[in-house]
Amino acid sequence: MRRPGTDENNVQMSDVLCDFCRQEWTDARFMVEGHQGSCICSDCLTHAYRAVARKSEPAVTEPGKCILCLETRPAPLWASPGFPDVLACQRCIKQSAAVLQKDPDFGWRKPER
Ligand SMILES: [Zn+2]
Ligand SMILES: [Zn+2]
After folding, report:
1. What's phi and psi for 39, nearest 5 deg?
2. Quick one: CA dihedral 81, 85, 86, 90, positive or negative?
3. What DSSP assignment string belongs to the chain?
4. pLDDT score at 106
5. Domain count of the chain?
6. Does residue 28 lie in a domain region?
7. CA 35–ligand 1 middle distance (angstroms)
8. Distance 61 CA to ligand 2 centre (A)
9. Which ligand is nearest to the CA of 88?
């Protein structure tokens, strides 16, 4: 998401916020973009991946609307701990993890557990 009041013609890193934790984009917190400016950060993606792919953290067990692809998707989804109505679907989480893992500058790895 964009920080409210962001100049769309001059978007700064600090204007880009993770939809799930509302923290800003920094060199230490990478963002993967979804539709309509929605974003998930690397920290949230670690938890989301553990929830839906490794099943080592709680996941949502009912269908819901993913904020990244804007589609209603079957369970499991991951809910933001701070904003429980903000959901990410398994498909977007896996795609985002693949994108992030490919970035050699960032060095993020899919969590093993
Ligand atoms: Zn986040
Ligand atoms: Zn999705």
Report:
1. -140, 150
2. positive
3. -BPTT--TTS--GGGBB-TTT-PBPBTTB-EEE-GGG-EEEHHHHHHHHIIIII--S--B-S-EEBTTT--EEPSPEEE-SSSTT-EEEHHHHHHHHHHHHH-TTT-------
4. 83
5. 1
6. yes
7. 16
8. 15
9. 2
- Amino acid code (one letter) for 70: L
Residue positions counted in the chain: 113
Residue at 1 is within a domain = no
Q: Is the pLDDT of residue 14 over 90?
A: yes
Domain that holds residue 93: 13-102
d(Cα 59, Cα 40) in Å, to the nearest integer?
A: 16
Quick one: tokens of 3? 């920080």
Answer yes or no: is 8 within a domain.
no
Query: Which ligand minimizes its atom distance to the CA of 22?
Result: 1
Mean pLDDT of all residues belonging to the chain: 95
Residue 109 resides in a domain: no
d(CA 25, CA 80): 17
Is the pLDDT higher at 44 or at 106?
Answer: 44
The bound ligand whose nearest atom lies closest to the alpha carbon of 74 is 2
Token reading at 9: 């013609």
pTM comes to 0.94
